[in-house]
Amino acid sequence: MATHFRRAGRSVVVTGGGQGLGREIALGLAAERYIVFGTAASAQEVEDLREASRGRVSLAVCDLKNAETVKAWAAGVSEAIGASGLDILINNTSHLSPGPLEIVPLQEVRRGFEMNVFGGLAVINAFLPALRLAHGRIVQINAWIEGAPRHFDGIAAASQAAMEAFSSAYQAELKPFGIDVIVASISDLESAGTRATASLAQIDHSMTAAQRKLYGQRLRTCLEKLAGSAGSEGPGEVAAKVIELAVQRRTPARSSIDPEAKRLMLAIRERTDAELKKLSSGLAGPY
Cα(132)–Cα(86) distance, rounded to whole angstroms? Predict the structure, then answer.
């Protein structure tokens, strides 16, 4: 249940606020005197953010794959915010399922869509009444990879492409209510850092001999490139860009928030199909 804040202040909800990029966004907004609510994966993350923010970040453990749980959490937050409504929703739902599509179990594909698509939709819809009260803003953090999917990014690319389409629909449908919808594009596997590396390493260790013959070399190349790309831009720098998009008065409908996403956006607009194919295979080596 959300804590009731009696202090005046603009309110923000950040999903995935307990770790990584979401954590940096939550703390950054708290430092700007916003009242921040959000979701976390564990009670430890909840307590850590409460202490780190001196009580200005109130997270809750919430299963975003369960629409009824999301509704109950959103109702508690909306009650705490009151008649002023919700100023900003930063939708940072993400479930990373990298790996060769031939090997990744279909159940894992379903989990990716349940979190990235259905979870994201459940959060947005649950907070729309509060957003209408404040004429608020939705910032949808999305991976810019559906236009040039790379090896082992297929599940993320497909689910993020779905959220890209839904975001466009929300932009049109919510404009009459004074609600902005902004897509903040981020690269996927590289930005996921150690999570992506750990997921791919687990697949590497579990492959059969036949699967290793088919995918082993490219998977190891991918792991090496992920290790080499670590640290190019930390979550704090990316979080600062998300916060800027969330709070500035005039914001483009879509914006890249890390160098890799910007590179992909430009490539999709300017390069030929052959060049995009080469770029797509770049992460894991040639076909």
Answer: 8
Mark out the alpha helices in 12-66 (DSSP H runs): 20-31, 43-52
Are 40 and 17 in contact by the 8 Å Cβ rule? The answer is yes
Angle at 167 between CA 180 and CA 111, to 5 degrees: 135
Q: How many CB atoms lie within 10 A of CB 131?
A: 25
Paired residues of 256 in beta bridges: 185
Task: Calculate the CA 46 to chain-centre distance.
Answer: 19
5 falls in which pLDDT band (50, 70, 90)?
very low
Element (DSSP H or E) covering residue 199:
helix 194-206
What is the C-alpha to C-alpha distance for residues 74 and 65, in angstroms, rounded to an integer?
A: 14
Task: Tell me the residue type at 155.
Answer: I
**Consecutive H or E run containing 35:** strand 35-40
pLDDT tens digits, one per residue of 52-98: 999 999 999 999 999 999 999 999 999 999 999 999 999 998 777 88
Say if CB 194 and CB 159 are below 8 A apart: no
pLDDT more than 90, % of the chain:
55
HSE-CB at 44 with a 13 A cutoff on CA atoms is 1
Q: Are 140 and 169 in contact (CB under 8 A)?
A: no
Give the pLDDT confidence score for residue 202 in this predicted structure.
Answer: 87
CA distances from 262 to 129, 184, 257 (A): 33, 11, 7
Contact 236, 165 (CB under 8 A): no
Among all chains, which residue has been given the structure tokens 């040639």? 286
* Whole-angstrom distance, CA of residue 70 vs CA of residue 38: 11
Q: Are 115 and 160 in contact (CB under 8 A)?
A: no
Q: At residue 137, does pLDDT exceed 90?
A: yes
Does residue 29 contact residue 14 with C-beta atoms inside 8 Å?
A: yes
